Amino acid sequence: MRGQIRIVRAVAAAVLLAAAIGSPASAQERWNRGQNVQPVFEGWERNDDGSFTMVFGYLNRNYQEQPIIPVGPNNFFEPGPADRGQPTHFY
Asked: Nearest 5 degrees, angle CA 25-CA 61-CA 41?
């Protein structure tokens, strides 16, 4: 009985290994242009007065295109002033 269980386990492991090796690795597709720019929350810092400073970055999902997005309806912060020194040229 124990021999049969070992054989079943060995066959199951071989099948799983073959499936993992046999499936092609799918690489992430590169887009040269046409994708959006995503904001990214990088973290926060505690200030001496007890307030917090939030740190943001961005992710340009295009491989070649470097969009220029001026401050306005597609590049702003709220509440408060829309222009807080954020980038407009996204590398």
From this structure: 110
